[in-house]
Structure formats: C-alpha cells, structure tokens
C-alpha cells in the first residue's frame, strides 16, 4: 500500500471518519503503511484521513529523551474516545497536512482515552504531556477538524495569507 499525505486545503480533511468493524489484514496493512509514511515525513502522529482513508484509525510515536522514536513507543488507536478530560495546556502544534506552519493551541492537560488495538482488544490509556496533546490533535482529525480550525479569526486570516505564500514558493522552487 503506497500512501501520500493529503494537504490542506484538500476538502478530504473535513470528512468524518467511520468506525472500524473488522480488525483484519486490511487494517493491519493500513497501519503499517501509515507508520512508514509518518516516519518518512518526520511526523509524531498521523490519522488515516491524512492518507485519504476516512477510518477511525490513528498512530502516535512520541520521541523519547534522546529524541528518537523507538518502535516500542508506537501507539495504534482504533475507534478512540476520550472519556475524561482535565486541566489546560498550550502547545505550539504543527501537522503533516499543514506543512511548515506552527501555532499555539489550547488543549486539555490530561485525558483518559478508550480505544481498541489492532487485534480488537479494548484498551484504556491515561495520558498527559505531549502524548495527551497528540491524541487530542489526532482525534480531532477523525472528526474532520484541523488545528488551524481552532485559531481566532485574526490568526486564521494571517495563516491563510502566509500558507498561500509558502505554497506558491514551493511550487516555484519545484519548477
Ligand atoms: C500532531 O504532528 C501533533 O509542518 C503530529 O514541515 C502536533 O507529526 C502532535 C510535521 C503537535 C503533538 C503536538 C509538521 C513535519 C509533523 C510540519 C506532526 C513539517 C514536518 C507534524
Ligand atoms: Co495533524
């Protein structure tokens, strides 16, 4: 399975993802291909909609103290739901689907999330720090929401202007 990253302003990113019903080989192939493209793109989190699949699937691989991403730390979440939220935190977020743009976003500090692993077993995870932020960012993708959708009106306007300029520069450098 060859996957490519869907980039803003592609409307695909607004789609709501559907729950996984079968924990089969096709799901495992998608998960493996998502991991490959995420690592290749220097990402720490990726939702299936970002590679064109409207399925409730996301992966996370938060760097450790040595700034490496061991496979042991890979988390795969199928059909996740946040069941508890507490506290507030701000982090300068980015997204593989919105390349070269970063902005401060408000999130909950701690969350508890219920999900299924690739075999279909029910799991519960209590998260804080960057992992908590990453989970909230990726679950937003499953609902068709990008981090830029959370910006104030003025910051969003600034983003649209800057993003268009950068996209134009990228096109020119390729030509
Ligand atoms: C989501 O984001 C996230 O602009 C994952 O040029 C964001 O992996 C989780 C990336 C913030 C926690 C905190 C972005 C790579 C990667 C770029 C990513 C870029 C290259 C973003
Ligand atoms: Co993202």
Summarize this structure briefly.
Strand 6 (110-116) and strand 7 (122-127) form a beta hairpin. This protein is α+β, with helices and mostly antiparallel strands and 175 residues long.
Question: What does this 3D model show about the protein?
Answer:
This protein is 30% helix and 24% strand. It is of the alpha+beta class. The chain has a five-stranded antiparallel β-sheet with strand order 1-2-3-6-7. Strands 4-5 form a two-stranded antiparallel sheet. The longest helix has 22 residues. The radius of gyration is 16 Å and the shape is globular. Bound molecules: 2-phenylethyl (2E)-3-(3,4-dihydroxyphenyl)prop-2-enoate and cobalt (II) ion. The site of cobalt (II) ion has 5 residues, from helix 2.
Which descriptors would you attach to this protein?
175 residues; alpha+beta; Peptide Deformylase; five-stranded antiparallel sheet; binds 2-phenylethyl (2E)-3-(3,4-dihydroxyphenyl)prop-2-enoate; binds cobalt (II) ion
CATH superfamily: Peptide deformylase
Number of strands: 7
Q: Give the biggest beta sheet.
A: 5 strands, antiparallel
Tell me, what is the CATH class? Alpha Beta
Bound molecules: 2-phenylethyl (2E)-3-(3,4-dihydroxyphenyl)prop-2-enoate, cobalt (II) ion
State the distance separating the first and last CA atoms. 29 Å
Topology order in helix (H) and strand (E) letters: HEEEEEEEHH
CATH topology: Peptide Deformylase
By CATH, the architecture is named: Alpha-Beta Complex
Question: Please, how many domains?
Answer: 1
pLDDT < 50 stretches: none
Overall outline: globular
- Residue share in helix: 25-40%
What's the average pLDDT? 97
Give the radius of gyration: 16 Å
Q: If helices are DSSP runs of H or I spanning 4 or more residues, what is the number of helices? A: 3
């Amino acid at each position: 399975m060859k996957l490519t990253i869907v980039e803003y302003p592609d409307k695909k990113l607004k789609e709501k993802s559907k729950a996984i019903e079968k924990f089969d080989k096709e799901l495992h192939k998608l998960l493996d291909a998502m991991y490959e493209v995420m690592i290749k793109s220097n990402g720490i989190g990726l939702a299936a909609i970002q590679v064109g699949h409207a399925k409730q699937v996301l992966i996370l691989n938060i760097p450790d103290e040595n700034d490496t991403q061991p496979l042991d730390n890979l988390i795969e979440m199928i059909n996740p739901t946040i069941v508890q939220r507490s506290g507030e935190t701000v982090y300068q977020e980015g997204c593989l689907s919105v390349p070269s743009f970063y902005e401060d976003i408000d999130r909950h500090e701690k969350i508890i999330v219920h999900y299924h692993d690739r075999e279909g077993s029910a799991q519960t995870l209590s998260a804080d720090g960057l992992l908590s932020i990453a989970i909230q960012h990726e679950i937003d993708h499953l609902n068709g929401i990008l981090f830029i959708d959370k910006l104030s009106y003025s910051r969003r306007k600034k983003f649209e202007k800057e993003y268009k300029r950068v996209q134009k520069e990228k096109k020119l450098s390729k030509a």
